[in-house]
Design a protein that fits this description.
The chain is mainly alpha-helical. The chain is built from 5 helices and 2 strands. The protein has a two-stranded antiparallel ribbon.
């Protein structure tokens, strides 16, 4: 059975939507927050320690930024893989994960601001 909409198109009246768990979505959202936090932490650590800065210098023309970004991407991918396995069949409230992820993203962004990470630079 179909019903007419205001545009004249027809749409089914009774559509059965299979309930899908929101776990994979929550896993992706949390992983994004973890990746952002990892970038902020690596940026701050590189400023605070010459050894960490040298370790993160994977490509000389780019400097330690190469290691910071690669490290953040690796943290994001590992977090996403682990969280996907944990959450894949769970029905979770993704609002909580979104709030946690936003907090992690804010902390990660703060870690990339010079006024913050330069406070950890050796005197």
């Amino acid at each position: 059975m179909t019903s007419n909409t205001s545009s004249g198109a027809t749409a089914p009246d009774n559509i059965d939507h299979a309930e899908k768990p929101e776990g994979p979505i929550a896993a992706a959202i949390l992983a994004a927050g973890i990746g952002a936090l990892a970038l902020g932490v690596l940026t701050t650590l590189a400023e605070g320690s010459e050894k960490v800065k040298d370790f993160l210098n994977l490509y000389d023309p780019v400097g330690p930024l190469s290691g910071k970004t690669i490290g953040a991407v690796i943290a994001w991918l590992v977090a996403w893989a682990i969280l996907h396995v944990v959450y894949r069949t769970k029905a979770v409230e993704s609002r909580k994960e979104l709030a946690i992820s936003l907090i992690l993203i804010v902390l990660g962004v703060v870690g990339t601001f010079p006024i913050f990470f330069q406070a950890f630079a050796p005197a």
